[in-house]
Amino acid sequence: MNKEFLNVIVADNDENTLIFFKNILKELKISIKVQCFSNGKDMMLYLNNDDAVVPEIVFINYTISGKDSMECLEEIEANSKFNNMVTAIFSEPIPENEIEDIFVKGANIFMKKPESFESLKKVLTEIITINWQYHASGLNKDNFILKV
Amino acid sequence: MYVKFDFNALCKKVLDEKLKEHGLKYRLLNFGEVEFYEPLTKEQHSLFKQNLEDYGIEIIESQKTALVQKIKDAIVELVFSDEIIPVKASIYISEKLNHSYGYLSNLFSEVAYTSIENFIILQKIEHAKALIIRNKQSLTEIAHKLNYSSVAHLSTQFKNTTGITPSQFQKIIGKRRRAQSTVINPKMQYE
After folding, report:
1. pLDDT 10s per residue in chain A (148 long)?
2. Domain B115-191: CATH class, spelled out
3. What is the pTM of this model?
4. What is the CATH number of domain A5-147?
5. Do A138 and B56 lie within an 8 Å CB cutoff?
6. What is the ipTM score, two decimals?
7. Å from A115 to nearest chain B CA?
8. H helices then E strands: how many in chain A?
């Protein structure tokens, strides 16, 4: 249960964002294995596969194509094999009521996507660090809500 | 229906039963510490380890990790205790573990990827969340119980840790629960 690294999935249509995420996650103190998907449909296909390693955390772009991010969330919520997986939605600025809705649908993290590489690095470091605490100390994932 | 767990009792019971099941001669010491009367063979060790993994129980091998785990346990005890413990956290932890706080604090940051101070805040906010969800105490009472000087202090720390206010948190959890109950009973949607 308490492995020395985290499995992370990132899903975004934008290849540059995926590269940013990958480069940042690779450099953190906590060891991370990253897997990327360019649309929601492929990500869910992979996750629903019986052989797939369920990651500790998935990052999904709010406006991802292939399968709507909220549809992905609902599928994840409905399947008990994802009970220990943390879901993070990231997006350009959106209204507060939409953010609330994302949390109500079961997301643990909402991240307003920072503009610069440096601030993305800062925010991702924060998310992974707090996520590690939930992972390593067995905190209640259902109560894990973080808005950054 | 909501149920409340006594995690200590639960974990101890599971451990006890598993040890018996494997026919090992042992003695349970402090929480999470087992002493064996006979050394385990490699095979016994790996079988036992495998079996425990199904329950989310991990055998801690390294001394450093074990010490950090003890610090975490002490913090949880401190934060979730029903009485307010009238000493500073640093003194409580260093007396409990019999090491200097400086040593423990450095070790903790190295192994746990966060500082003891941040871990205490995280645990306090977790406790606050659990109490908010239980919905039996006002925020003022919760702030007092968790040893905050005021509601404002609790709210600020809550917001800094989670990005949302305690009342937003309460609202989200409430909506989630209603959404879940409408899935179970779809007719309720049309009332």
Report:
1. 345 789 999 999 999 999 999 999 999 989 999 999 999 999 999 999 998 889 999 999 999 999 999 999 999 999 999 999 999 999 999 999 999 999 999 999 999 999 899 999 999 999 999 999 988 887 888 899 999 9
2. mainly alpha
3. 0.80
4. 3.40.50.2300
5. yes
6. 0.91
7. 19
8. 5, 6
